[in-house]
From TrEMBL:
Name of protein: Uncharacterized protein
Source organism of this protein record: Methylobacterium haplocladii
Region (Disordered): 1-21
Domain of life: Bacteria
Length: 133
């Protein structure tokens, strides 16, 4: 039963704690419990894309948020470069979710720009990270 309860949940969310001791938790409750227990950390990745590619990446991101981010931690950020190029950053709770983001490379949090634009994700989290700093 435990395997069925965690099917489709990234490995970092299956790493033990209260959530693993209670196999009756839903995927959403499971992720919230892991977040409360401090088991969730964010993976940052970046890629330079053309302006016309941003919408399809944003659509993918929103689908993942709906499935894997009940706590509102995931972010999709941008910074305009020389037109038509845009630099994107994505914050994900698990590197396994990075697969669909073709061409994105993991980067440290320190490499994020000081004033990016939020494309999708939790506005309050974005403000805490970039406007309150």
């Amino acid at each position: 039963m435990r395997g069925r309860q965690t099917a489709g949940v990234p490995k970092s969310l299956r790493s033990g704690g209260t959530a693993m001791r209670n196999p009756a938790l839903s995927r959403r409750d499971f992720a919230r419990t892991c977040l409360r227990e401090g088991q969730l950390h964010m993976i940052w990745a970046t890629r330079r894309v053309q302006d016309d590619e941003v919408q399809s990446i944003a659509d993918l991101f929103r689908d993942q948020v709906e499935a894997f981010d009940p706590a509102g931690q995931m972010l999709l950020l941008s910074l305009n470069e020389a037109w038509p190029m845009v630099r994107l950053w994505v914050a994900l709770p698990d590197e396994e979710l990075l697969g669909p983001y073709y061409g994105f490379a993991v980067c440290p949090r320190a490499e994020l720009p000081l004033a990016p634009t939020l494309i999708a994700g939790n506005v309050a989290r974005f403000q805490r990270l970039f406007q309150d700093a």
